[in-house]
Request: fold
Amino acid sequence: MEQPQHTMPLANSSFYQPSTFLLTGFPGLEANHHWISIPFCVFYLIGLSGNCLILIIIKKTQSLHKPMYYFLSMLAMTDLGLALCTLPTTLGIFWFKIRKIEFNACLTQMYFIHILSVMESSVLLAMAFDRFIAISNPLRYSSILTESTIIKTGLAIVSRAVISLLPIPFLLKRLTYCGDNVLSHSFCFHPDIMKLACADIKVNILYGLIVILSTVGVDFVFIVLSYVLILKTVVSLTTKEKCLKALNTCVSHICAVLIFFIPMIGLSVLHRCGNNVPPMLNTVVAYIYLIVPPVLNPIIYSVKSKLIRRAMLRTLWWKMSQCDRLSPSGFLENSSDLFCQVKSKGLARR
Reply:
């Protein structure tokens, strides 16, 4: 196992940056990392395949070309990005005990993790607005949320995240660091890197707080406000059946909001106020924050949305029917579809 580098800056040097940081998996459980990697592999596989399937189904199914599902595709792309950002370093530690990450590579990973987190928050706000319009003003739903409006919303979400977080890497690069270069996660996180600095980090703390409040904080407030207005509209409906039907369309989104915001708030509090909490708690909350939403979001929307569920079944049925065109050799004519080849070999063994 690699040991922390405690090389201190030279006496005549006033500026020092470590060439690398050391990432950390589960503190105290390093000997069991190969076993711990098994559920993580399952989580990543579910997250990547589930979100890819959501994107493919929305693209191929004409009945899903609606504002609600366009926003869902944005959420799936963001979740894919989050999973791909943390996958290399997390599995690198668990499988190969690779803890080192270069300074600039660490800042790059950190930047994209925070960008995607802000984007996910913004997408959830857009989805809350979508539900509010659909319930409070259904007759004007299509005219308000046009394709051009959705495209502009997507561009605004990306621009807001990229621009608001752009100064963060430069604020970290200007700092001088102490000898300790061990991070507390298997990925790079702004508060985690900032704590290793020997210099005054008040600017970093203040700017980080401004960004989190002006993006995620504002998004959360408007999401809550949207649901207050939704409840106000639902209560005014004439029958209980209509009320339940309207609320049922929001269940998936409420679940997505909770599984994203609760771990994020918890991790932010732990990094800013939890100096005496066990390192394991910090690690577990961080993994829940970055890995659980990409895993659960496609499952939640697949279970709750009949249209997505039917589209998935149609896609799988089409895939199975394609296997009926297998040639005698056991391979598809004009195709090298692995799924059908595996299936054909299994049938042949029977």
Summary: The CA atoms of residues 183 and 192 lie 6 Å apart. Confidence is low (pLDDT under 50) at residues 1-12, 327-336.
